[in-house]
Each structure stands twice: as structure tokens, then as C-alpha cells.
């Protein structure tokens, strides 16, 4: 390992970018934790979720472990609390019973850690040590906090009581979008070896050759999903896999989470407010089994993860994969519904500027999209910086979700970014789109 500064790295620019990202992220964390009183912060709103005050101090603890102690080589701030905030040692359901830092102490702790991080950032040299090259560890910590901000937003959605969050509605449709898009057969580059803040499970870039397939131009909407419900989709075992039907019966599923009947219509509850279900918005809060059953009812299937990524990144004209559907540039407000600017998915057609070259819309933002794929390492995967980030989750238990939601920050969302969860989970901001094999005459066209 050498400690030479990497040539071509503009350290000053990287430092200020990191500081801005840390700042912006902490602003979101503060908003989500300051929105409720102390009782609400320490309460568990669902056994699926941590008390918000656990997320807060856990974010600070990870920042202390990786940046203050490892990158900075500084003395611990609070070594005594490491176990309390270790996500692997403390299952979510048990977290409220732990001797957690009270809200004022948790806030003071994350503030102290952050001050030390700013201090070490001032003097840091971005050497070619893998953890600090291109500011990777800082990027990892920014993404980690942003991921917890999305988790905390999901906790807010599960919280009972008066509404505390507010945001303007997402933009209205600007173009008519519907139907499906043919993706021609051929190889494309999946994953990345060059995106500096990409996490271990997105690496390395590798070639995947896919036969021709057809994918929805937009996520499945509430209106489409209502047709599935109205057609008795929840009462017909033939649309469900064996495991899916068992879960559907046990959990008594009959509609997406947070929906209720309202006369002949449906209403949903969003962050404490009820409103009528809007037909042209992507459906959200469905589990993988529900997505699988809908797709079967519609005579389709879920896309594989590779199909999702090719639809999102492949540029046929240039013959290469892009970082995002619209190109390599970071998302702007015109590209995608990200970053908790709005508190629900945008109607289909709201982001024409974010479409892929083949005309697939709203792949990024709005709703996480379930894929049919289990979570695996890409060929050549190397765990970094620790096995617990991704590798311990590889296997058949989890399904991959792609594309981020309205609750996901742009720092934690790329065309290569991978999320995973159990097929029964739906407290997350999860939706889906459908795909199918191309018919021979389509594939030949
Ligand atoms: Fe975490």
C-alpha cells in the first residue's frame, strides 16, 4: 500500500464536494428527526423498524467507526456504544429495549462525530489506499446516512398520529407514456468498475448477453393494479406461486399496504393523510409476491435484474452503458422524483427528460422496482470494505430491487445501484414493472 496522492485528483474540489454532501445529508436527517417529539423518537412505530433515535445514533456510530477511527486514525468518541448500534448484533425488534442514548445525547453525539470528520477532512490526502481513493469512505458514509434517511421516511409512513411531514406534490404528466418497449438482443455492460462511489455489489463491470425482450415503458400504475384486485386477483391461487399464496393467506393480503376501501373506490394513507387512490401513479407498497402474482395475471413476468439494467443504461447508438437512463450526468429535478422532494410517486409521464434512449420512463426514482432476481455477487465480486455490507446477504432469501424511490437520495441511486429485501416486505417504497420474452417476429424486427 502506498500513500502517494493520486495523480489527477483535484483534492480541494473533492473535499468541498464531500463537505457539501455530508451537510446536505445531515439536513435531511435533522428534518426527519426534528419533525417529531422525544416520545416519538424513542418509540417503536413498527416491529419492522428501529426507533428513529436508534437510526440517528447508528448513523453517527458508523461515521465514527469508518471515518474518525479508520480513515482518520483518531481516538474513539464513544467506544462503549459500538455494540448497541451494531445492526448485526441488535435485531430491529429488540432495539427499543436497549439502553439507547436519549434524543439530546444522540444529537450531541452525531454532532461531535461530524465535527471531527470535518476536521480530518481538512487535512486529508486522497491517497491510493482503496478506502480513501476518490473519497470512497466518505461517499460510503454519505450513502449510508441517506439510506437510513429513506428507512426513517418509511418509519414515518408507518407512524400513527397527526401528520408531521409536508412537501409539494410531484409534477403532473408532461407526456403520454404507456405500452411496452422492445429491447433488442445483444450484449451490454452491467455493473461498474469506474464509478468512484459505487459499492462493492455494483462491481465489477462485466458483459451480459441477453436475448430480445419487451419491458413496460412505465411502472405498473394504481389503475392497472386496481383492475387486478377487481378481477379477483387476490382470491385466485393460480396467479400466485406456492410460497406467494401461503404468504397471501397468512398475512391476509387484499390490497397494497396503506390502502382501504372507500365506498366503490380506494383510498390510501400517506404520512398520516388519507386521499383517493390516483390511477396514473405507480403502485407502491406491494411485496414481491404481489408483484409476481400481478405479472402472472397480466400474462407477463417480472424483469430480471439484468433486463432492468439494460433497459436503464444501454445506449444503442453509442454502443455503451450510461450511468443513468438519460446519460452520465447526476440527476436533476427534471430527470427523476428523488430525494424526498415529494412524498409519493409522480404520475406516469411526469419525467420525459429522464427516459432512456429506448424510451423507458421513470426507471430512476418514484418507486423501487422488484426484479425476479435473487441477490448475488457480480462475476469477479470482491467484498469491500467488509463482508457485512453485501456478501452476507447473497443467496436465495432476498430479491433485488432497482432504481430508487421518491425517498431515495441521488447520492444513493445510480443505474448500477442495487437494493435487496425479503419477498414479503412492503413497508419499503416498492413497486414494479412487467416484462416478457420477445416473440420471434419481434426479435427479428
Ligand atoms: Fe446501517
Architecture overview:
- The chain has 445 residues and is α+β, with helices and mostly antiparallel strands.
- 30% of the residues lie in helices and 14% in strands.
- It has 10 helices and 14 strands.
- The strands form 5 sheets. It has a 4-stranded mixed β-sheet with strand order 12-11-10-13. The chain has a 3-stranded antiparallel β-sheet with strand order 1-4-14, with helices on one face.
- A hairpin with a 2-residue loop joins strand 5 and strand 6.
- The radius of gyration is 22 Å and the shape is globular.
- The termini are far apart.
- The model has no long low-confidence stretch (mean pLDDT 96).
- It binds fe (ii) ion (FE2).
- The site of fe (ii) ion (FE2) has 5 residues, from helix 3 and helix 5.
What does the secondary structure layout of this molecule look like, with pairings?
Blueprint: H1 11-34, H2 38-42, H3 52-71, H4 103-123, H5 136-158, E1 180-183, E2 186-190, E3 206-210, E4 213-216, H6 222-230, H7 242-250, E5 259-262, E6 265-270, E7 273-276, H8 288-297, H9 305-313, E8 314-315, E9 320-321, E10 368-375, E11 395-402, E12 418-421, E13 430-431, E14 435-437, H10 440-444
Parallel strand pairs: 10-13
Antiparallel strand pairs: 1-4, 2-3, 4-14, 5-6, 6-7, 8-9, 10-11, 11-12
Helix pairs in contact: 1-5, 3-4, 3-5, 7-8
